[in-house]
Write a structure and sequence with these properties.
Length: 209
């Protein structure tokens, strides 16, 4: 796989996890997955990614031929139960999982400082605080795009963000998702998230020296 293909794969994985977790996956996204939009590698990558890809195949096989609108409605019910509530069992925020700050407390400013250091402004469409999973991964996506266009300093920004933020909470979040839902799509996205962080951590370790 050449460099451009690796960048494309990294961006596609980030887009997938953001799409699943930032809100109920919309009907067009579901239709794309159940149509020709699922292209997964045959070769092994890492354990979490491989398991996530297997669950994605399970999701597609389970829902093949169904009306995407009906699948969307089922996902909406489960997404609301798990991530919205009332009293959701999983809160996809960094500060919820950290012991060194209160939920949506001062740790949020530290996340925002990482964005500001890299000259990045969070998008407004996510409707959540800036330590929300979709916002953190949107930031990571922006760094990957900058790396693709030759901005070597973006590897350094990613190294710091992984060390100080994503890797401090992603495993606990993934464990909670796997504990709280049997829905293959959400389980797949959690495992893809775990495998993606592992992949990025290893890649940046080689580049940010």
């Amino acid at each position: 796989m050449d460099d451009a293909a690796v960048y494309d794969a990294r961006l596609e994985l980030l887009d997938f996890v953001v799409e699943v977790f930032w809100d109920v996956p919309d009907e067009a996204f579901v239709a794309n997955l159940l149509g020709d939009g699922l292209q997964l590698p045959d070769a092994a990558v890492n354990t979490s990614l491989d398991e996530g890809f297997d669950l994605l195949r399970e999701f597609v096989a389970k829902n093949q031929g169904r009306d995407p609108a009906a699948v969307h409605d089922e996902l909406a019910q489960e997404y609301t139960r798990v991530f919205v509530g009332p009293r959701p069992p999983v809160l996809a925020h960094e500060t919820y999982y950290r012991d060194d700050t209160d939920f949506i407390g001062e740790g949020l400013a530290n996340v925002e400082a990482s964005y500001a250091a890299a000259g990045w402004n969070p998008p407004e469409e996510y409707g959540e605080e800036n330590d929300f999973i979709a916002v953190e991964l949107a930031f990571l996506r922006s760094l990957v795009e900058r790396q693709f266009h030759g901005a070597e300093e973006a590897f350094g920004y990613e190294r710091v963000f992984l060390d100080e933020h994503l890797t401090t909470w992603h495993e606990a979040f993934v464990d909670d998702v796997l504990d709280e839902t049997e829905e293959p799509l959400f389980r797949a996205a959690a495992l893809v998230f775990a495998g993606l962080v592992e992949f990025e951590d290893e890649l940046v370790a080689q580049m940010a020296r």
